[in-house]
Design goal:
Number of helices: 9
Number of strands: 15
Structural class: alpha/beta
Strand order of the largest sheet: 3-6-9-12-14-15
Shape: globular
Radius of gyration: 18 Å
Length: 255
């Protein structure tokens, strides 16, 4: 983690030198902090603070979460590395931390999920509301999301209360993991590891998306999808096999 943080600091120093107008931004957001967790807490607070929950108080909530549950910091690192590995537009570690709202929305969700699990449901829902307002990403704090997530562009993503998302999943803007019915229990999708959900994909109800599957852009999934299968259409139907790692190679074709 220390080498990772030093790389981000180096990128911040270089960024301030290349663009003096942003030198104070790089200092306050990165260089003024002792580690990655502190910088992330500061940046989330500065983006999501409001008159009702000032940034200073919100930052202390985030700091407490990262101290009590260091796995949240590791999850944030895994998410950030997912962007660096899968997004050709991300050629620096610092970019998701400072500029990518999908990354920041997922980290805000992780804090909200911790609060929900601790019984602080009102504060968790406040985090959800602010995340939706600031980042245009609406994730219920009770949903369970894995690590190594790459949420590209992110605008319009909706993930419901009982949704389950595995590790190393990639999704693009406009994806919905929506519910079906008013009953208690599982109402939302269960997405396994390594799945690619392309832009505008809608997965509705308690359906299962198998490991390494791919859902094409604009598709509506109403039935289970087998592992390593590509589905497309409205309603979605199998159209072929997915690559071995669709969430990593980000191939949007139907081959």
């Amino acid at each position: 983690m220390e080498d990772f943080w030093q790389k981000i600091r180096q990128e911040a120093e270089s960024g301030g030198e290349q663009e003096p107008a942003l030198a104070s931004f790089y200092f306050s957001s990165v260089l003024n902090h002792r580690n990655f967790a502190a910088a992330l807490a500061f940046h989330l607070a500065s983006r999501m603070g409001s008159d009702t929950l000032p940034a200073l108080l919100l930052r202390s909530i985030c700091d407490e979460a990262y101290v009590d549950q260091p796995e949240l910091v590791q999850a944030a690192k895994d998410d950030l590395l997912a962007y660096y590995d899968r997004d050709p537009a991300c050629d620096q570690y610092i970019l998701p931390l400072l500029f990518f709202k999908g990354f920041l929305a997922i980290q805000a969700y992780r804090i909200a999920h911790r609060l929900w699990g601790a019984g602080r449901t009102s504060l968790a829902l406040y985090f959800q509301s602010m995340t939706a307002t600031v980042f245009s990403v609406d994730i219920h704090p009770a949903a369970c999301l894995g690590t190594g997530l790459m949420v590209d562009h992110a605008t319009g993503i909706v993930i419901g209360e009982t949704a389950r998302v595995g590790n190393n999943v990639s999704m693009l803007h406009g994806v919905s993991l929506g519910g079906s019915g008013c009953h208690m229990g599982q109402r939302h999708p269960m997405v396994a590891d390594g799945v690619l959900l392309a832009a505008g994909a809608k997965i509705l109800g308690p359906v299962s998306i198998g490991e390494g599957a791919k859902v094409a852009a604009g598709s509506v999934v109403l039935e289970d999808v087998d592992a390593h299968m590509t589905v497309a259409g409205v309603p979605a139907k199998p159209v072929g096999k997915a690559s071995n790692q669709p969430a990593v190679d980000m191939n949007q074709s139907l081959d």
